Amino acid sequence: MPRGDGRLTHDIDPQSAGPQDACGVFGVWAPGEEVAKLTYYGLYALQHRGQESAGIAVSNGRQILVYKDMGLVSQVFDEATLESLKGEVAIGHARYSTTGASVWQNAQPTFRPTPTGSVVLGHNGNLTNTAELVDLLAERTASTGGAAGKGESATTDTAVMASLLASYEDRSVEEAALQVLPALRGAFSLVFMDEGTLYAARDPQGIRPLVLGRLERGWVVASETAALDIVGASFIREIEPGEFVAVDENGLRTERFAPAAPKGCIFEYVYLARPDTTISDQRIFSVRAEIGRRLAREHAVDADLVIPVPESGTPAAIGYAEESGIPFGHGLVKNAYVGRTFIQPSQTIRQLGIRLKLNPLRDVIAGQRLVVVDDSIVRGNTQRSLVAMLREAGASEIHVRISSPPVKWPCFYGIDFASRAELIANGISVEEICRSIGADSLAYVELDQLVEATGVPKDRLCRACFDGIYPVALPEDDLIGKHLLETDTEPLKVIQ
């Protein structure tokens, strides 16, 4: 069974877009408003978090309609579709899928009938105890004569959660949620709904972001504050780790289903979140610019021009230029319309690699000593192709600066980093990586410098992809976990 909803694609595959977060989620309760259109625009703001499928579910108080399909938000929905989705409460989802599971059946939101109606769920994150939950679901199905959670087969962790929520014959969805949520392990920021109520929940570690906003006549929950901005909702607060929220005609109510043990994902600050999003009272653009300033102080170099790898490297490149006094410039043009495509490229097109997304401005970079700022190096293929392309365009020196530490460990909480064997920083030095990508010099920001730039205490951040310390235990019978334990020289480290 697929364990999560992310795939690493930080290589020269023309369909790649950097390390992928599992999903973006959005929910709205707003009687009298066009909730489907609000959800559409919210998902549009969250498109960077998932680009393979999109879906919206809407309830008019009597029934729930779900519309989902493969593709970008703007490809899945049109005016006529949105006009047909009338109601007072809605949830939406933009997904990036597991390898081999990019199919309509796994698009979200996920629908399940319940004994008294129905439940629809959207999930951002990745559970680490899916096998245990499947066993729990089987027990409940047996105890209810096969009726528990009936509907589509459970092919993802999201489907298992939806089936569990639907499996309580004698409880409402809200009551069922308070039974199910404490059993979940891993990263989960959830939006779900029944016919009349919007629900949201966040795992006790708060690994993935989830925020609460207020409309004039309703409430919104979303993965990022940028989605609140686009629909005109005012930011109220982050949903707390271990918190369950419900909104209906009786107002908003919250309940804690587990004690908070905050471990927010540090990679949200590096790459995943939009630069105009705020996390833990920190504007992401400002954090990334500060990372760039720290890179310039720690890893200075004589150069003529600082250029970003657009768009993720831009804020850090601005910070690097400000601190170093080296002029900032745009040496690479990004094709904004590559996006996610389902047309498989031929071998000839594949060999073009990164050129489908980026093209050098030769008159800007020819003869220049460049500082090239990027957010991360995972496999190294992108940077290797990029350096070669810049040299071909006439750059005299290329000094690569990375606004995160070396990625040495896979993520089990919703970002699909490669296995350790595929991570270029696993087992070789920075100097060897530099030679591998063909740069004149290479430097990463130090982990402690990155943490300081976020303004969040180190013990409140998940840093597992950088230091191998996992805040939520990985079960020993987990196949991927076993592979790590058996093949790595360094042991997995888990903090409770």
What would you say this structure looks like, in words?
The longest helix is centred in the middle third of the chain and has 15 residues. The protein is of the alpha+beta class. Helix 4 runs parallel beside helix 5, helix 9 packs across helix 10 and helix 9 packs antiparallel against helix 15. The strands form seven sheets. A seven-stranded antiparallel β-sheet has the order 3-2-4-1-10-9-11. It has 17 helices and 25 strands. Strand 15 and strand 16 form a beta hairpin.
Features:
496 residues, alpha+beta, seven-stranded antiparallel β-sheet, six-stranded antiparallel β-sheet, 17 helices, elongated
* Spatial ordering of strands, largest sheet: 3-2-4-1-10-9-11
Distance between the termini: 26 Å
Instruction: Tell me the Rg in angstroms.
Output: 23 Å
**Relative helix content:** 25-40%
Number of strands: 25
Average per-residue pLDDT, rounded, comes to 88
State the major sheet. 7 strands, antiparallel
Total count of helical runs of at least 4 residues: 17
Which structural class do you get from the secondary structure elements? alpha+beta
Tell me, briefly, the overall form. Answer: elongated
- Pick out the low-confidence regions: 1-17, 477-492
Q: Oligomerization state of this entry?
A: single chain
Strand content: 15-25%
